[in-house]
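Researcher: I'm preparing a figure for a lab meeting and need a structural model of a single chain. I don't have an experimental structure, so a prediction will have to do for now. The sequence is pasted below. Please return the structure as tokens so I can convert it later.
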Amino acid sequence: APAGTPRSHIDKLAQAMAQAMRRPEVVQRLTSLGMEPVGGKPEELAARMREDMERYARVVKASGAKVE
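Model: Understood. Here is the structure written out token by token.
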């Protein structure tokens, strides 16, 4: 959600997403698209995203890849 979204809205959205992530058909579809379905609190998602960014930044740096 955009910055400044009321916490009550964030919590409601997170709850709906957590419910969806418990549905086998949703998990199967996301997995078939190469996604890793995860659920949890917004803070857990933010932490996961930070970890992923750090991990992939190291991979890119080690590979020597450059943007042209």
